[in-house]
Amino acid sequence: MHALPHDHTGARIRRLRLERHLTQRALSELSQVPYGTLTKVEQGVTTASPYVIGCLARALRVDIATITGQPYITELRADQLDVLIRPIREALDVYDLGADPDITPRPQPLLTADADALLVAVRAGEIKQTAQQLPALITEVTTAAHTTPTSGLWCLLASCYRSAYDVATKLGYGDLAAIALARLEWASERASSAAWAGMYRYFRALAYLREGQYRTGQRLTNLGLAIVEQAEAGRERDVVTGQLHLGAAVMAARSQNGHLAEGHLAEAERIATVTGEAAGVHYLAFGPTNVIVHRVSVLAELDQYGQAAEKGQQVRIPQGWPASRRSHHLAEVARAQMWTGDLHGSFRNLLAARKAAPQQARYHQTVRETYAGLEAARRQLPDSFLSYGSWLGV
Prior knowledge:
Among the domains are: 1-69, Orthogonal Bundle (434 Repressor (Amino-terminal Domain)); 72-192, no CATH class. Helix content is 72%, strand content 0%. The two termini are 17 Å apart. It is mainly α.
């Protein structure tokens, strides 16, 4: 089920509830979402937090995407991004066919440079550029890895699959992201890399986070932490370990376990004092800045929006930090400000999120949900608010 014109999350929840012949009171009891919250969400008076959406999705027995309306097909088609998905899907499908006789791979240093360039591009918010170039690179590296099955080439293929996962996730194609993750696991096993095996568990945990399955996500981060301990001691292991703790912190907060979330944040902070800013290590953007940014996310997930907004505005993003991470952070702060009633501050950060990474912001669920939450007060906002909605396609 995709978003209908002028549809919103609350309307989808109401439609799904009625299809199942449930009253609002019954759905409230099934989901453990307060009755008052559910009624306001359905009416579009307030937005649903990720935690509320997860609870309702489980109660209604649907995917999160069914409620959020992802992927946003109409907008993707307008941006000519929908046609780029099938070639990626086809490139992921030939993983086990061996070397393609019609392809002569370039030397590994050239392939590595291209794979790294795509990792940089997607973190700069250049989703379309990445999606266009990715299929050919995947098929070329697949042939290279089958022809000369070294650990380095299998790691390189894992990197390409990771970029496919990034693109699919940012555009809302959960099924394609799941396929990319399965391929990443397959390549990391052949590489015999504990670091890549740990990262696979991290990305997979994030997929479960988006689906509202927090217990499974927590088990995956714990497994990832155990696996990455087998990697050679050094900065790479520290960075992957720290990022796993950050993912686990958000997972714990989403499941409303503040104590566990704080424990993971504290461990990530300790590691970050050792690594410093390490944005380039596997392009995870780990370091002191990412710890602070995740602390803001944790506060928001725990419904401590006032503190989240305050700390979020105090964050100083270092020069050269990935634009996609900056945009995501600004969207989180905008959501917190909306909940505290700082409408103008919220909209300013939505504008900043768009400026930082336009392609990502257009398809970012938090951006869209926050805009929907501000819509009730649009008369108090500048005229540019409506043009922002037109840009989003809502």
